[in-house]
Design goal:
This protein is an alpha/beta fold. The chain has eleven helices and twelve strands. Strand 7, helix 7 and strand 8 form a beta-alpha-beta unit. Iron/sulfur cluster binds next to loops.
């Protein structure tokens, strides 16, 4: 069942040269107990799509059209107070750099207790017990002792666990994990992903994973949406996606993954367009090795290429 539904979201940024569109008809859904990965290169619009769910957007951003539903509430039209309640309490953000969310001046325990006080209305011994439980759930050793630690006394992986503990402490139903393991080494990466998977299954949490790493997606996600230059160009259940990838950009991303030992990696030539660049037709056409005449003149629509598998490309019309 969908807990978040993003429908045809169009968003632009005001800049000196006027309004520049950054998201084009972005649609995806998050389901309870499932992980949906939004994949693409830097600047493709995946973070801004996710931040739209929290309505945490830069001042220059302007939502042009579309809807975002949480249960049956239209998030984009919620009053500020209602929106504030959703952030943190129902929808929590796990950022790439945990220090953007942790306050270096307060202990981990104080920060957890604050979250529990605001979102669960608990105080004193009861709140303290919940805080320790949350740290234990994310496998912080000697949780009781660690309540007194400051963020700088935690390693990168432990800081990320503390952020996840805060989301658990306020019983968030949706986690938005924005490149949550990019700053961590490979072993810790795997531990954090195992932890997120465990939370997903045990607590029926919906997770939106934002990443550029298709290998991470193949091991963890239930659904995949690939973004390119502000548009979702392919989406499917993860099994179907990795068995039958269709879009030339997806295929190029998969070719650039390390697979067999000694096999040459193929980089995608060229750069994604900047927001200022006006491109006619398919926005991937300057980099596409399958580009046809029509691709330069016309924008492809989304075509169904399999069960719940969509691809925005004229090759699959
Ligand atoms: Fe390539 Fe054309 Fe498909 Fe775009 S529509 S991805 S240019 S084949």
């Amino acid at each position: 069942m969908a807990i978040i539904e993003v429908n045809n979201l169009n968003l632009g940024f005001e800049c000196e040269c006027g309004l520049r569109q950054a998201l084009f008809d972005v649609s995806f859904r998050l389901e309870k107990g499932k992980m949906h990965a939004l994949v693409g290169e830097s600047g493709c619009g995946k973070t801004i799509s996710a931040m739209s769910i929290l309505k945490l957007l830069p001042k220059t951003a302007k939502i042009l059209s579309g809807q975002i539903y949480y249960d049956d509430k239209d998030i984009l039209n919620l009053p500020q107070r209602e929106l504030q309640k959703l952030r943190g309490a129902k929808i929590a953000l796990i950022p790439q750099d945990p220090m953007t969310s942790l306050n270096p001046l307060y202990t981990i325990g104080d920060q957890l207790l604050e979250v529990i006080k605001i979102h669960q209305g608990l105080q004193g011994a009861e709140a303290y017990k919940k805080a320790v439980e949350a740290l234990e759930m994310v496998q912080i050793p000697c949780a009781d002792e660690r309540m007194k630690s400051y963020p700088h006394e935690f390693s990168g992986g432990m800081k990320q666990r503390a952020i996840i503990a805060m989301a658990l402490a306020c019983k968030a139903e949706i986690l938005i994990a924005d490149e949550p393991t990019t700053a961590l080494d490979v072993t810790i990466q795997a531990q954090i992903m195992n932890l997120l998977n465990d939370i997903k299954t045990r607590m029926n949490t919906a997770i939106l994973l934002i990443t550029h790493d298709l290998a991470l997606v193949s091991e963890n996600a239930d659904y995949v949406s690939v973004m390119y230059a502000g548009r979702i160009v392919e989406s499917a259940k993860a099994d179907e996606f990795f068995k039958h990838p269709k879009h030339p950009y997806t295929l190029a991303l998969l070719r650039s993954l390390p697979s067999k030992r000694g096999e040459k990696l193929l980089a995608i030539s060229g750069q994604p367009p900047s927001i200022q660049q006006a491109i006619s037709g398919c926005r991937f056409h300057p980099r596409c090795d399958k580009c046809m005449d029509i691709c330069i003149k016309q924008l492809p629509e989304s075509y169904e290429v399999g069960r719940e598998h969509f691809c925005v490309c004229f090759l699959h019309k």
